[in-house]
Each structure stands twice: as structure tokens, then as C-alpha cells.
Amino acid sequence: MRSILRKLFGSSSDSSQSNEKPNFDMEKYISAALDGAIKQNQSHDNTWGFSEANEWHVDQDTQKIIWTFDCGKVVTADVQIIGSYNYEDGSFLWAWDNPSLELEIVLQSLEVKKFGKEHGFKSFIDGKIYISEKRAWEFAAVANRLTNTNGIYSADTGGPRVFLSFGEVSINSKQP
User: Which Pfam families does the record cross-reference, listed alphabetically (predicted)?
Assistant: First the structure.
């Protein structure tokens, strides 16, 4: 009887009464996000040597990332911190749940949380999760795709590995 009533009148899980989107394939979305981020990063590597930077620095106050190169080139971009991966226990901490980070630099990670709530995807909603490093890259790629940024970056911090997304780059050469 209950199933007949649900068919006639709908239920609380009916897509018209829920934020969940029917037939949404989260894994397909994640895979497409990663593919897009890989292409973006390959383009950065081809145009300005993305992978050849010898130093990087994030300024939380200005939400900028600065890459420096041995040749004197300096590349800057707007940046958002997505999360950090701890190799010791396999945990990933979303930036929005990290009390040492300012709100302005974690806004894109909050977009992922919102997206997770809309689709009932727990890994985007819980502040600390246990995943592989590969999965952390995938989740950073989701942030990149959701917010239309220009690429993702990850670097060792001497502790947890930080995952970032960045905007349009500016390339400058230092004069010797």
C-alpha cells in the first residue's frame, strides 16, 4: 500500500522534493573533472614550465600563489586552498574545516561541500576523510571544475601535502 501511495503522491525522496539530482553519476563527474585538470596543467607546463618551478609560496592575506624559477621567471595567480593530505594516516582535511585557514582562501572548498550536499556525497561533506592521494587529486579537480579555475597544484609542506586551485596566471621575468 505504501508503495502505491508513493507512486501516486511521491515521497520525500522524490526529485521534485529533494535537492538530489536523479541519475547523477558522481564518479563520472569526478573522472571528467580530473581529465580536464590534467589537460589544463599540461597546457601550463607547455606554455610556462609549470612543473619546473623551483619554489612556491602562498600568501593567505592576498590569496595569491607565487612560483619562482631558476631563470628568474616569476608566475603569480589567485589561489584557493582545497585541502591537505596526510601521508601518515591517509587522511584528507578539507580546507573549510581547517581552523588555521582564513575564510577567503577556502571559499572554493565550500563550493565542493555545497555540491556534496546537493548530491548526497558524504566525502564532500565530512571535514576529515580517509582516502588515497589519487582521490585527493580527484577532489581538487572537482573544486577546479565547479569554480572554473585555471588549474590545480599540490605541493609538499614538510608535513601534509596541500592541494590548491589557481586562477589566471601572470608571468613576469626578473631583470638580472
Answer: DUF6882
**Cβ neighbours of residue 147 closer than 8 Å, sequence gap 6 or more:** 80, 108, 111, 165
CB 163 within 8 A of CB 133: no
DSSP 8-state secondary structure symbol assigned to residue 101: S
| DSSP assigned state of 21 | P
Pairwise CA distance, residues 160 & 86, whole Å: 4
Q: Measured on CA atoms in the order 50, 52, 53, 58, is the torsion positive or negative?
A: positive
Among the listed residues 160, 151, 164, 156, the one whose alpha carbon sits nearest the alpha carbon of residue 48: 151
CB atoms within 10 A of CB 171: 14
pTM score, whole prediction: 0.84
**Amino acid symbol at 35:** D
**Domain range annotation of the chain:** 25-173
Pairwise CA distance, residues 157 & 57, whole Å:
10
Q: How do residues 83-140 score in pLDDT, each as one tens digit?
A: 999 999 999 999 999 999 999 999 999 999 999 999 999 999 999 999 999 999 999 9
Residue 104's Cβ-count burial label (10 Å; 0-12, 13-18, 19+) is exposed
